[in-house]
Amino acid sequence: MPPAGERIVAWAERRLPSLTRMRQREPLPILLHRRRIYIVPTAFGLGFAVLLAVMLIGALNYANNAALMLTCLLGAATAGSMLVAFRTLNGVSVGGLRAGTARAGEAIRISLDIAASQRERMAIRLDVADGEQVVVVTPGAPTAIEFALPTDFRGWLSLPRMRIHTSWPLGMFRAWSWLNPDNPVLVYPRPEPLGPTPFEPEGDADRGRPRAGDELAALRDYRAGDPRRQIAWKLSARHHGLLVKDLEQPAPKEDWRLDWDSMHGLDDESRISRLARWVDEAKDSGRRWSLRLPDGYFDIAQGDEHYHRCMTALALRP
What tens digit of pLDDT does each residue of 54-79 get? Predict the structure, then answer.
């Protein structure tokens, strides 16, 4: 780019940041106000302006008061539509980011909330990820806009620049502003498709640990410390004491101890992919597992919270 062009772009970025795609990143929520909303006529608006000019010349040339009044009324409506387009975006707040879970190579679902404190906002459009979303924002309750972003790598994924705009009500003017949120979303690593199961040590001290089941095995007398939810209240009413439902204790599956150093001959990315597959398999099969990494250790546990902690640690590995 020639020096003159660079100076023009630098001036536009400094003085009119909302006008350009190069707007710096900013945290959510983002409030739209008069300093960051810009308006230009659409192609239809330019054509209508030419038509009004022709009507005005004809009305003045033929001294036709009715035609002159019609031209003035249409011109006033045009100017009013420009104000309405600006007021549709003015005061709109963009925030409330929520992201689903996705592995590298999958599309991740993103949800953004758009809210307005006063009056209904019609036909607000958001251009993001090569698509356009159209919503009507009602006052007092945020409206969610959902879209999907493609992913290629694990780790933090920055949101792309977005353009929020509207041509409401007559389509003669377009009001818009650029959004560049500084709120990345996390992408989990891609698990390897096939591979060996983790090493299961013999003589595991946790192997015989009993766990509560869901099937009723027998009734027994109440003992101090028994949970209240296991008391059989209806049967206890016909008995001289409290009866407790004794639930079956199925034999637990083997616990998996997933260790970064137990995999030899693999590079770092291959180890991350294998550990991600093992964590997925452990969660799906109802096992408990631990995860040891060079910079951290996650003790034996199971459940969604433990799963997300482990996958987050794998996704953020350098």
Answer: 999 999 998 899 999 999 999 999 99
CA-based nearest residue to 207, from 310, 281, 287, 145: 287
d(C-alpha 189, C-alpha 314), whole Å: 7
Which is nearest to 300 in space by CA: 290, 286, 292? 290
Q: Are strands 256-259 and 289-293 parallel, antiparallel or unpaired?
A: parallel
Structural domain spans, the chain: 23-187, 216-247, 256-315
Count of residues making up the chain: 318
Do residues 152 and 139 touch, judged by C-beta distance below 8 A? no
Q: Looking at 137-146, 201-210, 275-284, which range is the least confident one?
A: 201-210
- Cα–Cα nearest to 214, from 244, 268, 250: 250
Of 126, 103, 152, 128, the closest CA to residue 32 belongs to: 126
Checking phi first, is residue 96 left (phi over 0); if not, alpha (psi -120 to 50) or beta?
A: left
Residue given tokens 């350098």 in the structure block = 318
For residue 271, CA distances in Å to 264, 279, 284 come to: 9, 12, 20
pLDDT digits (tens, 9 = 90+) for 282-310: 999 888 999 999 988 999 998 899 999 99
- Picking from 5-19, 64-78, 207-221, 239-253, which range would have the lowest pLDDT averaged per residue? 207-221
| DSSP category for residue 191 | P
User: Among the residues of the chain, which ranges form H helices?
Assistant: 3-15, 43-61, 65-89, 233-237, 268-285, 304-315
Q: In whole angstroms, how far apart are CA 105 and each of 24, 99, 111, 149, 152?
A: 27, 16, 19, 10, 5
